Amino acid sequence: MCALLPRGVTHAMRNRSDTGGAFSLLEVAAQEIPRHVHHEADECIHVLEGALTVEFGGRSHTATRGRFVLLPHGVAHALRPGSTPPPRVLQISSPGGWDRFAEDLIEDRAQVSAAGLLDPA
User: Is the pTM higher than 0.85?
Assistant: First the structure.
């Protein structure tokens, strides 16, 4: 399991080293994440508490407790808390690696381009 967790991640239930790279499973206190695209990983989110606003396909959707959201790779999307306190969610990515990428995305949100790509500079 991860010893150091990205901000907002409350529990790394399984990281990619635990699953041979197949998936990552995190419990997260959701924070705002700007529009971005996963080019390889599919992302699944199950809302445990609160509400999560998900933007994709030119629309905004609110997922509340018990809802499941599938964000296939290649689909630009953004996430933001839809409740106070922020929603608590299970986040699954396949293949694994989100446990590392989440920290970079949250910390570097100002460097995310309008096209949804992280600026490596």
Answer: no
